[in-house]
Amino acid sequence: MLRRPPYxxxxxxxxxxxxxxNELLExxxxxxIGHNEIVEITSPVLITWNDGKSRLHGDFRALDxxxxxxxxxxxxxxxxxxxxxxxxxxx
Length: 91
Known about the structure:
- By secondary structure, this protein is an alpha+beta fold.
- The chain has one domain (11-84).
- The protein is built from two helices and two strands; from the N terminus they run αββα.
- The protein has helices at residues 11-26, 77-84; strands spanning 43-48, 54-59.
- Strands 1-2 form a two-stranded antiparallel sheet.
- Strand 1 and strand 2 form a beta hairpin.
């Protein structure tokens, strides 16, 4: 089970985070889960610019402990271009 405590934030910041969350709920981008489900993999982080606009982000660093990284070589660009040189269509 992965659970993170929420970050400390001011009341004003918390209201702004709630506003962003409600907008995402209305657009069906996110959904509420049941009261017995614990899926708190991120803490919401509010980024505010100088012009007063804000954006909601998630801190997913705790999720890194539960993911596997697959390492494989990247294709070489000259080889890829050589294969594409005679192509009529690229899809």
